[in-house]
Design a protein that fits this description.
Length: about 290
């Protein structure tokens, strides 16, 4: 009986040893999945953005959306949109490196035709040599719902969000949300454009400055053409923003053309003098008669 128990014990041990499989431990750092920079190592379910969200801006009713998040599951991804805060994505997969990260952090408004057209969330997780970002378009709906998410270009996402807070015809107008001083500045800018004192390009640049002052738009990085634009820089595509600048540049070009004409005439005169001098100094060849 004792030998029989020993045999059974030995058989069980041998079967157990045969079922052991060596497990590969992944230790290298990755810039995606649960090992992404946006994940808190001590708490893998907590995502850490690289920047803080921008200050609240836009229609006051949108204050009611702050602190709330709206989820959508499509195919093998679950998205979570927290208006004026952040946008995250979770890959529903059993893979060890299933993606879990931040697609964007609240940055500014995208304004079209002087209306709030979309929320822009930038500075998401790194994706190659760029950062992920999301543009969330708005539409009227009976409740707050994240309707869809697409990826038109690599790591640049588009989403559609419905909310009852945009159903009023004036809900997304920018002008009423500006303070009195910025409204006056807009009125003055529009008057200048109406009377032709500034071009359409100048009007648009002026509007962007107003939106930036109001904290609605992204920081302006493009520079306006300087008053001393040369002919060479004009060939590169510089534009004028008002009539006064255009007149100055036209006069500068006239002066430059006149200067070049004088230099060209002087060069022609030098060439003619050199030809005469060469003929004068040329030695006479003697010919012998046979």
């Amino acid at each position: 009986m004792i030998h029989r128990h020993l045999f059974i014990l030995g058989f069980v041990c041998s079967v157990t040893s045969a079922s052991l499989v060596q497990m590969r431990i992944v230790t290298e750092t990755a810039n995606y999945g649960y090992f992404a920079n946006s994940v808190d190592v001590e708490n893998p379910n907590k995502l850490v953005p690289s920047v803080s969200p921008a200050n609240f801006s836009g229609p006051k009713l949108f204050h009611r959306l702050v602190g709330k998040c709206y989820n959508l599951t499509e195919d093998r991804y679950r998205y979570s949109f927290c208006p004026l805060q952040n946008f995250t994505q979770y890959e529903i997969s059993a893979r060890w490196n299933a993606y879990q990260g931040i697609l964007g952090v609240w940055s500014h408004w995208h304004i079209e035709n002087n209306t709030f057209a979309a929320m822009v969330l930038k500075n998401g997780d790194q994706c190659g040599d760029i950062d992920r970002s999301v543009k969330v378009s708005l539409m009227c709906g009976p409740s707050e719902t994240l309707l869809n998410v697409t990826e038109p270009t690599r790591c640049q996402y588009s989403a559609l969000f419905s909310t009852r807070y945009v159903c009023h015809k004036d809900a997304l107008l920018v002008y009423p949300r500006l303070n009195f001083e910025l409204q006056k500045e807009w009125d003055h800018l529009l008057t200048e454009f109406h009377y032709g004192d500034i071009t359409k390009k100048g009007y648009e640049v002026g509007l962007q400055k107003i939106f930036h002052k109001a904290g609605l738009a992204e920081t302006i990085t493009t520079k306006l053409p300087e008053a001393t634009t040369t002919a060479a820089s004009l060939m590169e595509g510089d534009t004028f923003t008002d009539l006064q600048t255009c007149n100055k540049e036209y006069k500068n070009l006239q002066d430059e053309i006149a200067k070049l004409s004088v230099e060209l005439e002087a060069m022609k005169l030098m060439v003619d003098l050199n030809k005469i001098q060469n003929r004068t100094n040329k030695p006479h060849r003697l010919t012998s008669h046979q």
